[in-house]
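Practice problem 4.
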């Protein structure tokens, strides 16, 4: 049976092709076979527009940066054939000032798969065989479910947003937007002992948020300002919508913090910037992750989060196109996964 890879060749155009692999594995890399991958909002942007904001693809590319895999060839590394590993997609230089400070997310020379941010582009994880730096492979025990381990990368991003917001036990936390990233932020905050309220326009999304631990769930267009104004220590903005950011500015208490987990899209909009001054609000950005990847894997190993509840649908790798179409339709609540 031949190996396959999926290629994004243009907007809304995915092809399935036979994958050819080189006999030579790059130095420092291990050869892996995909176990499970999951779709990200950035994958959807590339699929829909052949671009993600200002990052435009120059040529066809295999998408995907959330995955786990089995080791096929350790290639001289300390990995063992057959081991299940979580794949950290950040391939940082390890030498620049950001890397030295432990901020590999801000590395000026990092490489990132399935993205236009790296030129020439690197193929992502939606393929059967992957050559990946061995140092970026985190081994786990055989007891870990690959369907859960594929959440390591997005969970790490959510945990980074929580860390930027300094979310701790007892905090009152509002999460605006109950898409996959918002849901993971909710799960992570609940695991820390925070009291979480979730907001979304979609009742089913709010219902899922409550299922995974949110104490309160509110439908965005049914909220009166007095219900939430100044009620929260931290707000995690996970929707990418300006109205939600304005809700965050209203909902956070004086001297509270808003952590922006979403990729707020560019466009003309009225933002209540005066509230940042009047309430002395701390607004912080959250981009990818650092040590949180290890924290995410440990949470997965501890089995403290119900990842099955957070999984909306599962497709075989050769149906990547159908999986992306479902994501684009908005009909999936939670993560969509691909299995090799």
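Answer key:
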């Amino acid at each position: 049976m031949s190996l396959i890879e999926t290629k994004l060749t243009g907007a809304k155009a995915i092809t399935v092709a036979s994958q050819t692999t080189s006999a030579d594995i790059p130095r420092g890399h291990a050869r892996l076979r995909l176990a499970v991958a999951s779709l990200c909002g950035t994958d959807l942007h590339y699929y829909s527009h052949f671009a993600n904001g200002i990052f435009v693809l120059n040529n066809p590319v295999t998408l995907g940066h959330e995955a786990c895999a089995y080791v096929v060839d350790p290639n001289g590394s300390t990995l063992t054939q057959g081991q299940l590993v979580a794949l950290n997609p950040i391939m940082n230089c390890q030498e620049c000032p950001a890397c030295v400070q432990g901020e590999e997310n801000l590395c000026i020379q990092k490489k990132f798969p399935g993205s236009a941010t790296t030129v020439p582009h690197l193929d992502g994880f939606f393929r059967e065989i992957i050559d990946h730096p061995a140092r970026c492979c985190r081994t786990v025990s055989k007891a870990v479910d690959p369907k859960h381990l594929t959440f390591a990368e997005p969970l790490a991003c959510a945990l980074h947003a929580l860390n930027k917001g300094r979310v701790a036990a007892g905090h009152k936390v509002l999460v605006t937007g109950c898409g996959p990233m918002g849901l993971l932020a909710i799960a992570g905050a609940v695991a820390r002992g925070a009291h979480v309220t979730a907001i979304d326009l979609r009742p089913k999304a709010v219902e899922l948020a409550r299922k995974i631990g949110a104490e309160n769930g509110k439908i965005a267009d049914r909220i009166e300002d007095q219900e939430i104004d100044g009620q929260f220590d931290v707000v995690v903005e996970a929707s990418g919508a300006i109205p939600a950011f304005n809700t965050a500015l209203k909902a956070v208490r004086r001297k509270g913090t808003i952590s922006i987990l979403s990729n707020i899209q560019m466009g003309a909009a009225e933002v209540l910037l005066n509230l940042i001054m009047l309430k002395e609000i701390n607004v912080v950005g959250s981009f990818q992750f650092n040590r949180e990847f290890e924290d995410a894997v440990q949470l997965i190993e501890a089995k403290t989060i119900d990842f099955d509840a957070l999984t909306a649908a599962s497709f075989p790798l050769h149906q990547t196109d159908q999986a992306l179409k479902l994501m684009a339709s908005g009909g999936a609540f939670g993560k969509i996964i691909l299995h090799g």
